[in-house]
Amino acid sequence: MSESTDLKKFLAKLGIDNLNEMQQAAIAAAADNKNVLLLSPTGTGKTLAFLLPAIKEMKSKVKGTQALVITPTRELALQIEKVFRMMSTGMKVTTCYGGHFMETEENNLREAPQLLIGTPGRLADHIRRGNISTPTITTLVLDEFDKSLELGFSEDMAFILSELPALNKKILTSATDIEELPEYLDMTGAMRLHFTSDAQQQQQLTLEVLHSKEKDKLPALLGLLCKYGKGQSIVFCNHREAVERVGMFLTEEGIVNERYHGALEQDRRDEALCKFRNGSVNVLVTTDLGSRGLDIPEVQTVIHYHLPHNAEAFTHRNGRTARMTARGRAVLILGPEEHVPEYAGESLHEIVLPANNTLPAPPLWATLFISAGRKDKVNKVDIVGFLAQKGELKKDEIGLIEVKDFHSFVAVKSSKVSGVLSLVRGQKIKNKGVRISLAR
Fold it and tell me: Which residue segments constitute the domains of the chain, with CATH numbers given?
């Protein structure tokens, strides 16, 4: 099969017609250069920009791991794995990250995958334990490298690179420019691709400000979500405790929301993102952990409940909206003693809230939890068939399905939930007894 045929096949699997300008440039640069530095904002399609060149270098019949992708977060690692699996390359992929059983990863690594994805700390741990054999790795991708440096992973990354004797191609991606790269990267003579111009996003992003009459901004936030509640919104707070407080307040006021921060267990974080992706909730309250590296849809409104610590954080938060060709808005909620920071500029539209709040309609979808996943040989087709036959659901009453290792999430129309749960109680999927419930 030719290279162009492979590309068309992969894009068809992903439901993509054509690559964008940045992706085309990255693929061409990787073909002609040993080292590539790709600077491009969050949400512009960097995953394909490095996966396609990596796949080109990999050979399905060759044993051993050939490509390694290092990411700063678990969520980003899982997102990359998801894209790779959707492409149906026929090659094995394994993902390693903290927050779940080391034993599971050790079992998956017994047969070396062609592609290995993971966070720096967990990958370094596996290498030290001898679970990962590195001499066959020839391609390295450092995705969201600036974030990895910010999180303090430099020592782990330096160790990993020292264990890659056969490395002949490095692709480094970043959402922000890095003036001085660490020496251990050895990116001498790298082809630098700059797609970080803010001009396009500024044209598509509307900046607004809402002045809170009270020091406690919760009433102002409620009014704002009632005004813009039809679309999906992300509310950014500076602390985990604030995320919990804001989320609880919104729940009490009738705004369906999910919370996302680093103190939550990984399974709980996965569930929160899944419900936001599938439309079971329209509001995600998060720390800056939610500003980058997450597989979430385009959102209409970014809300800065707390002012960002700096211009870079402001940029990354706003990167969750007005991506590619879409339009979006970012709103700063200011208390009586707060002022618009310099990095936000001067041309902010001031929001005036209606005198009375009208709560947005509840989400049309709800999320079901199914206690079976990939390791149980259960896939999306199995789940659709089960819900159609046993749950008596029509195709348009079944939404986004996400199959994890040991469980699955599926969106169904909210109006059908109670009936479905009654019909499927005690039923089996592929002869396996499963627990099905409304996701918490």
Answer: 3-194 (3.40.50.300), 199-350 (3.40.50.300), 365-438 (3.30.70.330)
